Amino acid sequence: MLIRYNGQIVRVVEYQHIAPGNWRAMVRMKLKNFETGKVIEDRVRAGSDIEVINTETREATYLYKDGSNYHFMDTADYEQIMLPEEIVGSQMIWVKENDNVALLVQDNGKILDVEVPNFVTLKVVQADNVVRGDTANNVLKSVTLETGAVVQVPAFIKEGDVLRIDTRDGQYLERA
Fold first, then answer.
1. Residue 176: how many CB atoms within 10 A of its CB?
2. Are residues 69 and 47 in the same domain?
3. Which of 115, 144, 162 finishes a domain?
4. CATH number at residue 31
5. Which residues contact 53 (CB under 8 A, 6 or more apart)?
6. Of 61, 84, 88, the residue nearest 72 (C-alpha)
7. pTM value?
8. In whole angstroms, what is the distance from residue 132 CA to residue 98 CA?
9. What is the pLDDT of residue 12?
10. Exposure string (b/e) for 18-55, b if CB count within 10 Å is 16 or more?
11. Chain centre to alpha carbon of residue 34
């Protein structure tokens, strides 16, 4: 959910309703600011007026990166959209060219965020060799994926393998 809080548009990351005995009920919220990326925690009284931001999600295809700008194509009307790195954020490290993403669009047409799929399949382009015997000890190693992302994987993964990755935490799930 997106709300306007202290004049800024923020995403409610998590919330908890608290009713401590004979005190007034309150809601404890963890909020992420879209402009700065900063996460804050705050409390408001239950029943307080909070302005909810209306948004829609539009499907787009990632085309290419040009310097510090990312270029997308809206799949509905084929309009090309250019977004600066500040809006796109660090999650684009999981997306290859021609992959689909979701654009979070405010009702006035302003794009607030780019949401990548939760799971992606990427090829390993660089993997270090492990010393014989390390595989028995569940040793992890770093590999570089085709998008440039570096993840920790089990020692048996080698160059050329295709991996399934959870983009929310950057964890290796399995070979695809």
1. 13
2. no
3. 115
4. 2.30.30.30
5. 2, 3, 4, 9, 106, 107
6. 61
7. 0.72
8. 39
9. 86
10. eeeeeeeebbebebeebeeeeeeeeeeeeeeeeeebeb
11. 12
pLDDT greater at residue 46 or residue 132: 46
User: Alpha-carbon dihedral of residues 72, 119, 88, 104, nearest 10 degrees?
Assistant: 80
Domain housing 41? 2-52
Rounded to whole angstroms, the Cα distance separating 103 from 60 reads 7
C-alpha span between 162 and 157 (Å, rounded): 9
Which whole number is the average pLDDT over 101-113?
Answer: 84
Q: Strand pairing of 26-33 and 8-18?
A: antiparallel
CA 13 to chain CA centroid, Å, is 12
62 with 110, same domain?
A: yes
DSSP H stretches of helix in 30-141: 85-88
Six token digits for residue 98: 């021609």
Which residue carries 């948004």 as its tokens?
A: 55
How sure is the predictor about 119, in pLDDT bands with cuts at 50, 70 and 90?
very high
In which residue are the tokens 């925690």 written? 41
